[in-house]
Specification:
By secondary structure, the protein is α/β, with parallel strands linked by helices. It has two helices and ten strands. It comes from Halogranum gelatinilyticum.
Length: about 120
């Protein structure tokens, strides 16, 4: 398992904004999960009109081959296959009149579908 922290790393495999970390930690706490061990899993799966889509879920602990990063107290788990597609991405949380939710800003994307739910690299 590869482990990095936001502090002191030259470039983390992914980045999480303070707003996204705060929201995810709040959700983890509301689920009664131990934030010292549990975390947010960010992954890529087949699907959507552009071919790939993002997925997120809470896991109680990382898998052995996960890259684990820590941002603002939030542990983030990414499996090696997903890292190929989302390395260098930023996870943000938007809360406004037009949209509310998590958003992945991925520099590897060549095209996205019209609704922004799926992508192609």
């Amino acid at each position: 398992m590869s482990t990095e922290t936001a502090e002191g790393s030259a470039r983390a495999p992914i980045t999480v904004t303070p707003a996204a970390a705060d929201e995810a930690l709040s959700l983890l706490n509301s689920e009664g999960m131990d934030t010292d061990v549990a975390g947010l899993r960010l992954f890529v799966q087949q699907g959507g009109c552009a071919g790939l889509s993002y997925g997120m879920r809470f896991d109680n602990e990382p898998e052995d081959d996960d890259t684990v990063t820590d941002f603002h107290g939030l542990r983030v788990f990414v499996d090696p296959a997903s890292m190929k597609y989302i390395g260098g991405s930023t996870l943000d949380y938007e809360s406004g009149l037009q949209a509310k939710g998590f958003h992945v800003e991925n520099p590897n994307v060549e095209s996205e579908c019209g609704c922004g739910e799926s992508f192609r690299t």
